[in-house]
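To the team - 2-deoxy-2-amino glucitol-6-phosphate complex, inputs and output below.
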Amino acid sequence: MCGIMGFSGNFKKESSVGVVLSGLKSLEYRGYDSSGIAYYDNDDKVIKYIKKSGKLVNLSNEFSSIAPLNSDVAIGHIRWATHGMPTDKNAHPHIDCSGDIAIVHNGIIENYAVLRNTLKKKGHRFTTETDSEVIAHLIEDYMGTGKSFYEAVRLSSLELLGAFAILALNAGEKSIAAVKFGPPLVLAQKDNNIYVASDISPLIEYTSDVIYLKNSEIAYFHNGELDITTFKGKKINKTVVKIDWDASRAAKSGFSHFMQKEIYEQPARLLDAFSSRVTAGDGMKDNVGPRISLEGLKLTKKDVANSSKIILVACGSSYYAGLAIKYMIEMVCGLPVIVEYGSEFRYENFPISQNDIFVGVSQSGETADTNSALEVVKAKRAKILSITNVPGSQITNLSNKGVIYTHAGPEIGVASTKAFTAQLLCGLLLALYIREKSGFIPKYRWFNSQNIFKNLLELPKKVEKILFIDETLKDIAKKHYKSSNFLYLGRGILYPIALEGALKLKEISYIHAEGYPAGEMKHGPIALVDENMPVLFLLSNNILAPKTISNIEEIKARGGKVIAVADYEPEIDGLSDLIQIPETLEVLSPVLYAVPLQLLAYHIAALKGTDIDQPRNLAKSVTVE
Ligand code: AGP
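Output:
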């Protein structure tokens, strides 16, 4: 949801604008309505800027048509519009009346209308329809009273309401101030150069040592020095965090799209998610799971014993992962699980007990809806842990009982794929960890350490087998990509995967798709079925199979086209398509069923020629409520 990047230093290869432009490229998945860069021109000794609507390429074309720049301080922005249409004028940076201050902003300024009116009355001239422009004029106003640039930024930050990550550039000092309240900001320092960005992706090519700003903190770079203070002006020392992502993982590596590359990475990433955390434990002994070691998780036996339920909080795909994790925990731990949308939870009257265990699930760790819900939980002093992909992200600060990192590496495609399957796997690890603490004995024949361990080890290879049938999925996509509607149906632990499959298709192909529990179909959605409606069933060779097969017959009887994804060869006549995948344990099956649905959505979108990595209207991290 908007990305910002700033640089101050002397980068021999290129000017500050080149560094910021390449940083914005890495951040482009966060928003792509318009973009802009403001820089200090060392020759003319003024701030200059270019801003353009549309994709980042429009901005880089503008910069490539001007002479090489002599600049070592710059800030840039990639926009996902909230206030004001995505036009050239409304693009960031925003400049004050004097032209000495430029700002870029990620978030929403809730009191912008009041501030704007007050500043207008004082003579400030506004040129855009955005909420963000007010920040540049507010800083200017404070400087007009004799305050230093840093002090003006600090006092302005105290006046702003809402959510904001801001970079402000000042011509007089050639300095940058970075302000965080809500959306993320990460800093890195290397060879007298200082970098700041909305996330680590633009920084990893320079260094793996980063500093995460916390809420109500300001980083101020001037003359090669970096000072970090609170909004109250108190200097603070920050811890440097080492990131284990490498730059090559954030490149397309020969694939047509990041999404495709990320789907194909899944065997390796799934291995990363469990390999150092699971051991076979007590061998063949029945009813004992494998030994789980989740570094940094601080749930005690007492915490688990005192908890009467587990509540998962998440949004989007992470919410669907949460729904599947509910089945895993209930199966393995015998504890009831509730799954809540972050955006709803905050405004519900959910009775929060200090004894309950809350689990935030978020790829980015920066989703405002999820984090705001967890803030409410934290205020009630309940126990919070999280499953996230991004080290040091906001959700990790809220997690008083620790974090399970998904180790999926940078996910650039806006549609989540590898992070989703890694969340599922980490959810199972959490279930096994809680079971170990509770001593609960699941009443399933399959539940023994050796069996679970063996199936986990086989999982990456089974995902690879699904990737081998990619061409078949492409052929199926060719048959159906012109459809206007799709239904995805599944039962039990596969129902959340039906929801996720439908979401993937909607997000990247813009085809309307609904996910439903297969048993609910006859209670309404069946009215939609006709010969134009592909209905995709997730079918597993278990106790629920006969019921799902009856649902398939009901669709066929109404002329619907049935696509079945199954872990066996079902005896059903008249299927439009069968996608056969390997068999695994029921608790692991969501991982395998998710993969063909990702590939199908990918191929349908490719045939429709949509913008797969940056689908319209979406942003990777939704840092506003
Ligand atoms: C996934 O394909 C989506 N882009 C979206 O639903 C996403 O899962 C949601 O916004 C939550 O994001 P998070 O996992 O970073 O919290």
